[in-house]
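B., you asked whether I could sanity-check this one before it goes into the benchmark set. Here's the sequence:
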Amino acid sequence: MTNLSDFISKLPKAELHLHLEGTLEPEMMLEKAKKNGIKLPYKSIEDARNAYRFKDLQSFLDLYYLGVSSLVDEQDFFDLAYAYFKKAASQNVRRAEVFFDPQAHTRRGVDFGTVIKGIHRAAVKAEDDFGISAGIIMSFLRDMPVSSAEETLEQALQYRSWIMGVGLDSKELGNPPSKFENVFKRASDEGFIAVAHAGEEAPAEYVWEAIKFLKVARIDHGYHMFEDQSLVIYVVHNRIPVTMCPLASVAVEYFKDIKDVPVKKAIDLGIIVSINSDDPAYFGGYINENYEAVAEALNLTFSEIKQITKNSFLSSFWSDKEKEKYIANVDKI
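And here's what the prediction gave me:
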């Protein structure tokens, strides 16, 4: 019988919920901090890795933004993104639609162009080197003023051809999607696709707001939507994809155990759910490790694992031709 790990490794996948800054491994963080003269409270790689312990979203974000401070020039962002694409390709990710947080850099004096030029250059080289296709999504930090998001959108227009969509992340509670309705409307008018973290730590109403006010094409996390049956029915009926990040959600204690992450519930209800790694450097696993953890905890069949993989392509903003190609490839395994 085929080994579960081997089976998952062979499956082509799309990763749709991945924060590039969340792929900053301790080794690179300390290397960049030393190069750039940034002081961090870690004496060694092991010391830094041991600090990656969280009790909630805020404790994670505090460490996340501390690590981000080590990234300064275009080469830093190139190295960060390229390392992720290389790792993802090794786990058979064929399409990666990745987030970056420009405000986390511009608010500390790093130019928007410095960030996107490094990431874009890495995406181009990774496609040449590994055959992995990338789409770049710019996320607004929801705990910053709307005026900052509006300024960030203005800065992004210069690089419109390199940025596929806009998202919404960071501290959710107290920062509902409706707060950003106007900036998302402007982004839509400029041709950006909309997604948003919603229902991660906040109630189902935040998911409704993301749908109604932001017109999202995909929901990130969405865990609390199961509290509202009418919302679940709407998501299923309108085929709105949902990205889930199992290891991350346990790490920040939304769930006590992987078996509690509602991946199987979503499959059974007909939701187009995908598995993703979120911030893998901090949460202990890239995409294959997330697949394995869920498959083992929920006793998923190979058929169900294949369906999740097909969902990842269905949920992507790739061309229909590429989606059909890779879904057909999944069926051959």
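One thing to flag: Residues 11 and 333 are 7 Å apart (CA to CA). Otherwise nothing jumped out at me.
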